[in-house]
Amino acid sequence: MSDRPQKITFADMRDSGVRGLLIYCSDYRRSHSLAISGDRWSDDVRLSDLEPLFGAPSAASAAPTWPDFSWNKQPVAMMGYR
Asked: Which of 7, 26, 53, 68 could lock 48 by a disulfide, CB 3.0 to 4.6 Å apart?
């Protein structure tokens, strides 16, 4: 059992109208992030269940994963990361 807090399930996230995920590099110096669809995971999976899957070999811990509340919005050109 992990000491990491359990996050919401995909069912909870979808009930809130959110279908996308933001995944952040656990190394704060790198500041890498990725926005992906959460459609591939079933409703009973927790966001915290995915965090170890996205950890980079060079990172000391799992990658923090959060709902992407802007998943269905047009990107702002000056932001540059989408």
From this structure: 7
26 in Cβ contact with 63 (< 8 Å) = yes
In angstroms, the CA 24 to CA 54 distance is 9
C-beta atoms surrounding 45 within 10 Å: 15
CA distances from 69 to 19, 24, 41, 72, 78 (A): 8, 15, 17, 8, 19
Domain annotation covers residue 34: yes
- Is the pTM higher than 0.85? The answer reads no
List, for residues 32-45, the tens digit of each pLDDT value: 788 889 999 999 99
pLDDT, tens only, 3-31: 666 788 999 999 999 899 888 877 767 77
